[in-house]
Every structure is written in structure tokens, then in C-alpha cells.
Amino acid sequence: MRLWLAQARVRRGRGGGRVIAGVLGASIAVLLNATVALACYGANEGAYSEFTGTTGARGASSNVNLSSATASPGTAIVHPLQIAANDGDFVGWGTYKGRAPTAGNCLDDYSGWNLYVDGASNGVYFCRSSYGALPDNPSFHNFRINYTTCPSSGRTRWVFSINEQAQTCNDMGGHQYGVTAAGGENVYTYTNQRIDVLYADLTWRSPTAGWLRWTNSQRMCQDPGYLANYPDYSVPSTITVELLP
Amino acid sequence: MRRGSASATATLVALIGILLPTACATSGLGNGATSVADATTLAGCGPSAAPAIDEHFAPVAGRFGPARWPSIRTADRRAVADPRTARVAGAPPLIPVVPSEVGWLQLALAELDGGLTMYYAQAPVGGAETIAEFLARGGLAVTQRPTAGRDRASDVVADVGSRAGLVSLAGHTAALVHADPLLRDDFRAYHLYWSDGMRDWTVQGVVQRPEVLIDIARSMYCP
User: Fold this and answer.
1) Model-level pTM?
2) I need a labelling partner for B2 at 20 to 30 A (CA). Which of A147, A182, B75, B161 fits?
3) Cis? peptide before B66, omega within 30° of 0
4) Does an H or E element contain B195, and which?
């Protein structure tokens, strides 16, 4: 984090004194907030966990703003879903906007809500974001993570599907037991970054049982202090992310 | 699993490790009629040497996360008081020799798929402890499960590339990975993956030298 800050100051400092002042202020804010990165999940443990769900896309609110010309360094991740095994490996899926991880092959993108898949396979982290993006406009999407036959290889893998279309398949060292987790995150914490993640519907199951509604369905995550007004959680526009530079 | 017996066994294994290269050489050169099987069995039983692997890694701060791992004591996993009484792939499990500096057997869990995981550490496994926390305090996990019928080491190399290196284990080939950190960048576990044709194995531990894991794996095959 500190190394990155140093680079940001040099890069932006060429623009003039006003910019420098702003960056210094932002840098201080980053330092102050570095330890309070939002990462809120609900979790369910069990064997052979699978995920499915329906979620509204993020709302087309005017304060959904990460496309600043100065490319604010934050990252918003909404709808992250995760299944982690008891050997440390995990697979996850979500959408993000902003700065990509330095590890893996995800790309920085401040313009759209990129679909990504990340995880750890055989102890090594991976991240890929070559699956397109979801629109900013409110709309519903179905997603699924389940351990089944991968269409491309025929092997049993964790298969990620969006709107019933398989996107990618991943191995995980252990898959017999896991914890399913869903929520919202921000990383590379930036001041004024607020995330409010809600799900229209979220279910999980093990192969020996039927689908279960998520215990904490609907609102999974809310940044403290964010005063969102959602009189009706069933409306399509269920997610608002605010990242103010 | 007591301290004394583990130390004594570890010493014995160390002596075998020193003496075995001579035995292997003698077997391979002195008796051609039996050397093929013997050499295959004993190859990889000498002094351990870790392969060269790519030491670049993904730091905790450089990735999306964090992950939420399940507790080790998941309700669906059944504790086994004496792992020697368990069955894996229709046979008694192999029990490794683990150096006392790593720890002693604290917990054995039978899994739904017929696998068995043994947890070695200096202190008992907590009720809600996760694998990340367990490894971070120096614990070692050994998992054996009925084989999926594939070359586990080759699959791992195909998956992680240069992050893995191959190791000979008494005629089997294992893949050694210096894994990405789970909680802190200064606590990175080594993983060893292999299949012996009957069982698929995973050994994980935060150890100073990866040779420790290799020796633990070899302790189950080498005389």
C-alpha cells in the first residue's frame, strides 16, 4: 500500500500544486482507512456446497463513479461469491470496477462492471477477467457455481455460469467440504467508498439436500454510515455502489 | 504419536535416509534380475533435495479477497481417535513420521469421500480453527483419499506451471508448490501433491525447508 502511494504521488504530482494537495489529502485518507477495508460476507458451511442465485445489477445511480479521469485507485467488488475448501483453496466469482489485483490476470478497468473469477488452485492464486461486463443499468442476472461436468473438458470441476451460460471451469484442491460466502468488498481502500450489497435471491445446497434460501438473504453487506434508502428490496435496482474520488 | 516415539522414529528415518543411497546403488548395480523393481521402489528414498521452483507469489494485499475458509472441524467430518483403525481406499491408511519439531498428531478426520486428514501441531486444533490459522501457527496437514485415477503431480504442474517442481518419492512423483500466503505474506506453506496409484495425497505445512515435507512423505514408502 505504501509503495503504491509513493508511485501515485509521483505520477500525479506533475500536474500542479492543487493536484498535489489533493493527492496528499487522499493519501492521508488512504493511510487512515487502510485498516478498515470493507469485506462483509455471510457464510454457510457444509459439504459439497453449491451456489445459485438471482441478483439485480447495480443501480444506475449518478454516484456510481469509478470512471474518474484520474483513475481513483479504489476497487469496488459487488456480488462476490466464494466457495472455500478446507485445504486453503477457494473459487470465487463477482463483478468489480476499478483497480485489479496485482496478482493474476485481471485487468484494471474503471469503465464497466467486469466479470471476474478468482481463487486459489493447488495453493496458487489466480484471477481472470476476460468474461465481459455487466451493464450499469438495473437488470437481473442469474449466476451459479457448482461442482459438475465442465462443458469444455468433460472433467468434474467448479463451473461458473452466468445467465445459464458456462463461463469457466476451475479446479480446487479439495472440494468435499466448503464454506459458501457472499457479500461485498472493497479493496485498496479509498475514502468515501461505500458499498451496499443486496441480493434479490440467493440459495445454496449440498448434493444430499435441496436448495436453501440464504440465511441473511437480501442485504449482505452495508458499509457503516451509508444511509441508503431502499423502501422495497424486491425492486430490480438492488445495488448501489458509491465510490467518490 | 507420543513425543518420544516420534523422535525415535524420526531418528531412524534419518539414518535410513543416510544409509539408503548405498542400498539403492547396490540394488541397482549388483543384482540386475531384481534391480528394476527395487530401483523403482527405492528411487527417491535418499537424502531429500527440493526442486527449483518459481518463488514469485501473490501477496495477500495484491489480490481480491479475503477468502472465508471453513473451520477444520466441519460437522460433516468425523473425528477418528486412532487413524490406524480407519480405512482409505479399502485399506488401512499410511501413517507418516512427522518430526517432533513440527508437532504431534492432534486430530484425524474421516471425510465423506473416504479420505482421511491428519493434523499435526504443537497444540490441539481449536473448535473453530481454519486451515489458514492452523498452518499459520506451524501446523501440518496430511490428506489421503481414494485416488481419482489421475497423475496428481502432472495435474498440479499443468495447473500452476513453474510454481511447482517435481520430486521423486520412492517410485512416485510428487509436485512441490510454495503456496501463496493465506493470511500473512511471511507465512507461506509448502504443498506436496502426489498419487501412489491407490491414494491421492496432499501434505501442507509452513516449514523452513521443503525437504521436511519430502521426508515426511518418504517416511511412508521408504524402508
Assistant:
1) 0.73
2) B75
3) yes
4) strand B190-195
